[in-house]
């Protein structure tokens, strides 16, 4: 049984199971403000320990410890399908007490047909942070910059192999494709290898693969140890707050006019009211502006990137159009 079919079966079971689930909607007080009638559940649509889970838990912890809401915020993990199982759960319940954390895979999974739900099927509430990708090679590799790498790839793109943790058409793959495309490389000829078992770094270090496309923190760990060198990062400008991270060059300063933000934001169910949205926007804005959450961002190397619901929706619309165009060029989507 294929992974995609298994995920669709899991989603179908969630939808059937959800048919009998009561939806509690809270109430609107005399001031016209919505109030929840129980604790809030933030779904991390992944197993414990990843970026979604960590962001959700740090967010819930800050809200509770800083007394930013009158009801508790808890985190529940619902892994499966790269997020699709958790999204199906939220969509079916359609309950304003159930939210979820997400990032760019909500574009990729939907566009690739692995989930019937994309960002437009939910209510974007707020974006909270920005993380970034990095492109790294072994310390003794022949390239010292993205400019050198892409100059070679413009001539012979198939001679360079790229590895990432995500599947083809998803995050590690697409961040490299977007930069290569901006650098004038024929992206249809790029050799990308998916290693979802955790061996991507090892394959570059042992010389079997040329380039790894990954997160900044993962690449920086190997570069600090002198085992790899980071050719470029996907941030719009150099990272601040860490002496080593400040040395990592961006694509823009090497003449590649693009960026890729690994945003992480909060979504709600599809039919949220204006009062419900206002309730959550206020809480998440206060969380983002708190000193406690600033310390968490510094601890994990995240950038502050708060967007309210309107700004977040406009950002998602723009990113979706860009990614859909590149996926079509690669042959992942049909016109």
TrEMBL record:
InterPro entries: BUG, Bug_dom1
Cited PROSITE patterns: PROKAR_LIPOPROTEIN
CDD domains given in the database record: PBP2_Bug_TTT
Source species, domain of life: Bacteria
Pfam families: TctC
Family to which this protein belongs: Belongs to the UPF0065 (bug) family.
Name used for this protein in its record: Putative tricarboxylic transport membrane protein
Species: Halalkalibacter nanhaiisediminis
Taxonomic lineage from the root: Bacteria, Bacillati, Bacillota, Bacilli, Bacillales
